[in-house]
Amino acid sequence: MTTPSSPPSLPEHAHLVHPKYRPDIDGLRAVAVLSVLGYHAFPQWIKGGFIGVDIFFVISGFLITTIILGSFQGDGFSYREFYARRVKRIFPALALVLLATMAFGWFALLPHEWEQLGKHVAAGAGFVSNFAFWSEAGYFDNAAETKPLLHLWSLAIEEQFYIFWPVLLGLAWKRKWRMLTVLGTVAAMSFLLNVTTIHSHRTAAFYSPLSRFWELMIGGMLAYARLHRPPPKPGWSRHAQSIAGLVLIILGLCYIRGGKAFPGFWAILPSLGAFFCIAAGPTGVLNRYVLASKPMVWVGLISYPLYLWHWPLLAYARILEGKLPSDGIRALMLVASFVLAWLTYRFVERYTRRSENPTVTAGLVAVMVGFVVLGLLATTRYYVGRHSDPYFNKTAAAAKDWAYPDGLSPIKVDGEVLQQIGQGKRRVLFFGDSHVEQYGPRAVELSKTSPGTLDSLSFVTWGACPPIPNVVDEQNNVCSERRDGGMRLAMSDKFDAVVFGGCWNCYFSQTDKPNAETAAYDRYYFFDGKDKRRFMGGGGVDFSLNMLETVLTTLSKHKHVYLLLDNPVGEGFGPEEFVKGGRLGDMQVGKMSPTAPWDPKQKALHERMRQIAQRSGAIVIDPIPTLCKKDWCTRADADATPIYKDAGHLRAEYVRKHATYMDPAMTTPATPAPAR
């Protein structure tokens, strides 16, 4: 993404050999960046556009390896000149984007958002963004669309490659190792790590440089081949490679989805596509007439600043709107990205790349170190944003009030990890998602206040994973495995009672076909072994609820079965309702009204779930009488303290004190001692 095949007008360092400028590679870079921009702005249209990053990786691997190996075979490789060139190429545009992102964040973000941005600025300037976002990933991580610097994860991986790769190749050259063996070994190990971890550790496989380097190695192996073997003569073979390359990329754009195990084997499509496009050379038919066309080359030349600018603009538009912006606003953000990218390329990048003054390099390094320091000051609250009202801490405290599995102990039963508490004779399994987890604090509270009546409670849960057979979550490959393991335990004789619960409102209240605003939630479907019936617009909700009723009916013949109905969810219930005013004006923490309306769709689903329980013989656990009255539901206590941690989950403090409706499923009254 960052390494150019420089136009001939740019000066080169004496000790570094650079590949001859190829406009078709700039055109390939344009394909990559336009794919990413299309996916980020209009994901419902270009669903596989994120593969543009993988194309960038192959291009960078090819160009960097060409420079390194060519220099070793020529006048010699200069590490100092290599890294000075990287600094002058990468730092100027990045510094501008960090400055603009932080300046606008200071003006518009809330305190907790500002602190997170500070962390991301420090990580971005230190080129460890991939590790920062890896550490944050989880069920309660805030939406990716609200992280203005999320896209820097890929830049961090490339920078880590730039540090690691020259040193390894230098060692191999000095010790006369076979270069192709080194390239192949690194690629094979990285790819093996990728495909073996993509299901069990998906976040790690996505963000780890070790599971991504194989894509850069594909470009590196092509670079070695071009330096040591004569390229094929212009003709049909080059045309075939050119066509095959773009066809593979198009297939990736059409068939790869965010819910698939990516990178995994799917990343082979864009990686080999980029490989064939580069291997075809400038005379390949599509390289010559499509990739090397003037519009594509122009986009390719500004692709690096274009990639840097587009995401903060889209993210801030999302933050200001409080939801997905309209198509027009997103299109406007892309236009602004092109304008800023061209200005950055024309007046900043070209100047710094031409400069031979060593103070320029030193100054750029100092600037980046300054951003690391500034980011750390922001994230540790030594440097606060404009919206620094201390009462914002009230909303922040609510958002962080999640205690599961604190107070519970992990145990392993039949290969499944459960969270357990209590020593009572009755063994109760709580089976579901985070809407079951949220009641863990009530179990812990009962263990303190009524230990003699507490049953032996075990929680087997997985966030956003409904406890219903044959339901598939496209974005969570572990869900089916975890759910099936929990179902085996529920059916077994190891438990006397089972509580089924979930965010039923999240899964089943929205049955319309997805649109641009709801496309991100279209991730579930019911699979009967033959057909995929999507929850949104595909009838999957009816099939799923019928399956749930079948399971409850079967189980209730052998043991106590509870169906935990859902609490109200929606934007009106989260602690952010405290915040008053606009982000571009004055923002304050106001007093939250104590109630919010109960969505009619959620009310209808609630009644449907109750009927399912009654028909199946399950015992209903209903939070609505505690939370709601006449279609208005509590979202704050009498003193305006929010009872929700976010738009869907009750906070731990409230659950501990007030979720008494859970007690019948958690306790068995002590048998009174016989009279004497």
In short:
With 676 residues, this protein is an alpha/beta fold. The protein has 26 helices and 15 strands. It has a seven-stranded mixed β-sheet with strand order 1-2-4-3-6-9-13. Strands 5-7-8 form a three-stranded antiparallel β-sheet, with helices on one face. It has a three-stranded antiparallel β-sheet with strand order 12-15-14.
Would you identify the regions where 5 or more consecutive residues have pLDDT less than 50? Answer: 4-14
Shape assignment: globular
- Largest beta sheet, briefly? 7 strands, mixed
Strand content: 5-15%
Number of β-strand runs: 15
Distance between the termini: 84 Å
Q: Would you tell me the overall average pLDDT? A: 90
- Derived structural class: alpha/beta
Number of helical stretches of at least 4 residues: 26
Lateral strand order in the biggest sheet: 1-2-4-3-6-9-13
- Percent range of helical residues: 40-55%
Radius of gyration: 28 Å
General description of the model:
By secondary structure, this protein is α/β, with parallel strands linked by helices. The strands form 4 sheets. The chain has a 7-stranded mixed beta sheet with strand order 1-2-4-3-6-9-13. Helix 3 (79-108) runs antiparallel to helix 4, helix 3 runs parallel beside helix 14 and helix 9 (213-228) runs parallel beside helix 11. The longest helix has 30 residues, at 79-108.
